[in-house]
Amino acid sequence: MTERENMELIFQHKQPDHIPHLGSDAYGIRDYVVERPIMTTGHDAWGCHWISCPSSLNLTHPDTSDIKFEDLEDWRGKINIPDLEKVDFTPMIEETKAFTNRDEKMIQYVSLIGIFERSHILMGFENALCACMEEPEEFGEMLKALTEHKIRLYKKVYEIVKPDILVYHDDMATQASQFLSTDFYNQYLFPEYKRIVAAAREIGYKYIIHHSCGRIEKLIPDWLDCGFDGWDSVMNCNDLVQIKKEYGDKIVFMPGLDTQGVLGKAGSSRQAIEKMVVEWMNMLASDGTGLIIDSTPAYSLNPANEVICLEFIKKHGKPFMDAKKAGIEYVPDLEV
User: Fold this and answer.
1) Burial status of residue 55 (CB atoms within 10 A of its CB: 0-12, 13-18, 19 or more)
2) Residues paired with 61 in a beta bridge
3) CATH number for the domain harbouring residue 265
4) Which pairs count as long-range contacts for 71-76, CB under 8 Å and 24+ apart, including other chains?
5) CA atoms within 13 A on the CB side of 285
6) Is residue 333 part of a domain?
7) Which range has the worst mean pLDDT, 202-206, 238-242, 253-257, 329-333?
C-alpha cells in the first residue's frame, strides 16, 4: 500500500495500514508569499515586521511596535495586500521537481497566518480585539478582504503544485479558552472560513485542515460545519477523549503529541517518550481510525526527543493498526 492510499483511508475514516507521520509520509510545500519569516528577523509580504526569539528556536513574533493602524476605520487605506502578480513563484516550481513519487505520496500545502491572525498582526492584538467588539460589522468587512486574498493565493498555488492537502493556520484560543465568543466566530469569522473551504475544494484541494493551538473544543462542531476535514496541533488542554468519542468519525486528528510535556522536556527518557506516543495513539485512534502524527523535529526545543518519537511511530505504527484490526490491545516492549 502506498502512503497516498494509506492517507486516503484515514481521511475516509477507515482503518489504515499504519499510523503515518505527515512530515515524512507526504510531501510538503512552504509558503513562498511570505506570511511570516520563520527563523529570522525581517518583514513579511504585507510589510509587517517580525522579530526572531532565541528562547523559542528563533521562531518569530510580530513586532508590536510596527502595527500598520490602530483604528479600524483606517484599514482600507493602510493594508498592503500582496500583489500575487509580482511574486516570483520560480522557487516553488523548482521545489516541486523533487516530488518524484506523486502517485505514491500526497502533497500538503501549509498556509500560515490566517485571516484572524492577520487582523491582529496588522493592527495589534488589543486593538483588534476591541475592534471586534466595538465595530464588528466593519471588522467583518476587513476579514472579507483578507479572505479574498487567501482564495487568490490558493488558486495560484494549486495552478503550480496541485496539492492534495491544504493546512490553514489560524490560532483561535489560549490554553484556557477561546479568544472570542463562539457567537462572534459564528457571525463574522466562520462565514469566511466557509468561503475559504468551499473555494479551496472548487479549486481542487481534496482535504482542508484547520490548524489552531489552544483550547478550541467548543468550536469543533462549527469547524465541521465550515467543511474542515481535520484538526492540526490537537493540544491536550482539550478533552481529547470526549472529542474523539463525539467527533472521531467526522474529523481527522493531526497532533504534534505532548510537545509541552514529555516531548518538550530536556532529559525525557526514551521509555517515557514511547509510553506517551502509545497513550496518544490509543486515545486518538482508539478505534483504529482518524490519526496522522504531525510532530516536527525542526521546530522542537528538544529535537532528539522528536527523533525518538518518529522512530517509534515508524516501527510501531503498523503493528498498532494490526492489533486494532484484530480487536486486541497493542502492548509494545518499551525501550529503557
Assistant:
1) exposed
2) 51
3) 3.20.20.210
4) 71/127, 72/123, 72/127, 72/131, 72/134, 72/135, 72/138, 72/139, 72/142, 73/135, 73/138, 75/122, 75/123, 75/138, 75/142
5) 35
6) no
7) 329-333
Q: What is the pLDDT of residues 55-73, one digit of tens each?
A: 777 789 999 999 999 999 9
Structural domain including 25 reads 3-326
For the segment 260-278, the average pLDDT, to the nearest whole number, is 89
CA distance 261 to 166: 28
Give burial (CB, 10 Å; 0-12/13-18/19+) of 70.
middle
Answer yes or no: are the C-beta atoms of 214 and 237 closer than 8 Å.
yes
Banded model confidence at residue 18, pLDDT cuts 50, 70, 90: very high
Q: Given a cut of 90, is residue 260 above it in pLDDT?
A: no
C-beta neighbour count of 14 within 10 angstroms: 11
User: Which residues on adjacent β-strands are paired with residue 230?
Assistant: 209, 252
214/230 Cα distance (integer angstroms): 15
Structural domain contains residue 103: yes
Mean pLDDT of the chain: 93
Q: Starting at the edge strand that comes first in sequence, how are the strands of the sheet with 42-43 ordered?
A: 42-43, 49-52, 60-62
> For residues 214 and 252, what is the distance between their CA atoms, to the nearest angstrom?
17
In a domain, 334, yes or no: no
197 Cβ contact partners less than 8 Å away, ≥ 6 residues apart: 208, 226, 227, 228
173 three-class SS? strand
Q: Which tens digits make up the pLDDT trace of 89-122?
A: 999 999 999 999 999 999 999 999 999 999 999 9
Cell of 83: 500583489
Nearest to 289, CA basis, from 7, 5, 8, 10: 10
The number of domains in the chain is 1
Contact 173, 234 (CB under 8 A): no
**DSSP H/E element including 107:** strand 107-111
Cα(234)–Cα(224) distance, integer angstroms: 15
C-alpha cell at 70: 490602530
